[in-house]
Write a structure and sequence with these properties.
By secondary structure, this protein is mostly helical. It has 13 helices and no strands. The chain is globular.
Amino acid sequence: MDERVILGPDCLREGANWLVGQDARFLQVIEAIDEIPLRLRGDGFEALFSAIIGQQVSTASAAAIWTRIEGAEMTAADRVAAASDADLAALGLSRPKIKYAHALARAGIDYPALRGMPTDEVMKILTAVSGIGEWTAEIYALFSLGRADVFPAGDLALQEAAKVLFSLPARPTSREMRVMSDAWSPWRGVAARLLWAYYRTIKKREGIR
């Protein structure tokens, strides 16, 4: 694999400087935020399960559910695979997410192998699991694998931040965001971090957990 991986703040600064050179409006973001959030986290089942919990709910709701999951020591694949639907429902999982959790726990993904695979291959493997769409797979590639050139174009907070920053008449669609983000390659992952931080600044709430 020959893809840039974000390892720490130096990578973020390099990417941010490059983005400002491409579009000076990113400087407005840098000046408005305290710091560029690194958001790197561990990889493996727990990280991907957490991303599933974050699907289509507020960051506060996702955090509350995840706290219950951790309290029940239900963060390992074998524990989730053995859990009943009622067990998972009691922790706050909806019926679809119970199905997705079981599918992921039984998928047999070789998580260490994903680290050395091209992002396209990672996306193909992850999205083959029921309940893992593009957004969830991209979040995993961004934060658990540190891929520098991944941009979750379907994320509503990113769309709203882009609308404000670039003075767009309406919130861009996923397709429009995907096209827009092409200009930010090979640092689309830094652009996403900047836009999430900008969203937090302008909306006074988190757009991503």
